[in-house]
Amino acid sequence: MKIVHLATHAQCIGNGTVNAMVDLACMQARAGHDVVVASAGGAFESLLRRHGVTHSLLHQSRQPWRVPAMIAGFSRLIERFNPDIVHAHMMTGALISRFGSMRRRFALVTTVHHDIQKSASLVRFGDRVIVASHAVGDAMLECGVPADRLSVVTSGTIGSPRFTGQQPPRPLQLQHPNVVCVAAMFERNGIADLLQAFAHVRQTQDAQLYLVGEGTDRGLMESLAEQLGIANHVTFTGFVADPRAYLAEADVFVFAAHQAPGPLVISEAREAGCAIVATKVGGVPEMLENGGAGVLVAPQEPMQLAAKLGWLLMDSPMRAQYGARAKRDLERFSVQRVCTEHLAVYEQAISQCEHRQNRPSTRRAPVA
């Protein structure tokens, strides 16, 4: 197949959408497909090249006055590459794919990576719409996306090309007991909830909190830690490209987001064998076997979160038990499985387009 992935950028900044797209593009190229990533560029370009993926510069923006230039650039890309599949990972890409080539011959696939409500109006343009969990699929159905266009492909990071061949990060010698969170510093990721919960935990336990990530709300979160009197026990590390060392030394890993279709960090935490506490949102329960591989709590409930964190920090045998459960049946989180299932969706999308257009296929046979 000839595949074009559309993303806003290819920067290594902890953006889960970009990370998932990079993993998928590299795995598809490894399988023998012709793959192009079209974006504004970034540090992942060298990784893409090493895996045989072509990067094409295509600036994407939500500013209306930039739309004509985006559509023109997209049209040139399509004319030059003549893809079988265009896979839009962000909503701007879905928009220009839909209107940038009105007489298109490619099949358009869109993926819901972020806010479900905002995504619904644009992802419906896809011949196939990919979601990261059945829960998100149900939400998209309620938003009006046709059932015959939806496909569920759950997230996974095991065997990620982003880490393949790299030496494991050096041990950090974190203070114990500790709680580790890997997430961008945005309020929607539940950082304020976690700080409030941790302040309650600190009343009875001498624990440390490590917040691994960067974001526009970091200053607000640092101020909140000061107000709660826990600033000396909270470490804001900033962005860390490879968080595996923090996951390896976590006593408890916490994910407190208010919404999450299929967070990659859950896969990473499971691979590390973390005892996990996470909010019951989006695709998280499915990624944690509905509580079998991690403790689930309600979102935006700091006291409930505090109770579960305090319990696991005090009960080392239970922490070990949850860590062992997290490492079971990890095959489902492999990037190879993610790649295979995406290619199957692509085949469905192409078949639907060929049937609709009543034209013969000119594609090469797909590589096994």
Spatial separation of the terminal alpha carbons: 11 Å
CATH class of the largest domain: Alpha Beta
* Second CATH tier, the architecture of the largest domain: 3-Layer(aba) Sandwich
Structural class based on helices, strands and sheet pairing: alpha/beta
Strand-and-helix sequence, N→C? EHEHEHEHEHEHEEHEHEHEHEHEHHH
Principal-axes shape call:
elongated
**What is the strand arrangement across the widest sheet?**
3-2-1-4-5-6-7
Nearest-integer average pLDDT: 91
CATH fold descriptor of the largest domain: Rossmann fold
Strand percentage lies at 15-25%
- What's the name of the CATH homologous superfamily of the largest domain? Glycogen Phosphorylase B
Number of helices, where a helix is a run of at least 4 consecutive DSSP H or I residues: 14
**Which segments are poorly predicted (pLDDT under 50) over 5 or more consecutive residues?**
none
Number of domains: 2
Biggest pleated sheet: 7 strands, parallel
Give a verbal description of the structure.
With 368 residues, this protein is an alpha/beta fold. The chain folds into two domains: 2-156 and 334-357, Rossmann fold; 178-330, Glycogen Phosphorylase B (Rossmann fold, 3-Layer(aba) Sandwich), CATH 3.40.50.2000. It is built from 14 helices and 13 strands. It has helices spanning 16-30, 45-50, 67-81, 91-99, 116-123, 134-142, 191-201, 218-227, 244-248, 264-271, 284-287, 302-314, 316-326, 335-357, and strands spanning 2-6, 34-39, 54-57, 85-88, 107-111, 128-131, 150-152, 178-182, 208-212, 234-238, 252-255, 276-279, 295-297. Helix 8 (218-227) links the parallel strand 9 and strand 10. The mean pLDDT is 91.
